[in-house]
Amino acid sequence: MSTPETTDTTRHVRLRVDIVLEIDGPAGLTAAAEERIDSDEFMPAEERAHARAAVQEDPSEALSYLVEPFDLVRDLPGVELVQAAWSSEEIEYDPDAMEWELDEEDGAEEDDDRP
Question: What pTM does this model have?
Answer without folding.
Answer: 0.67
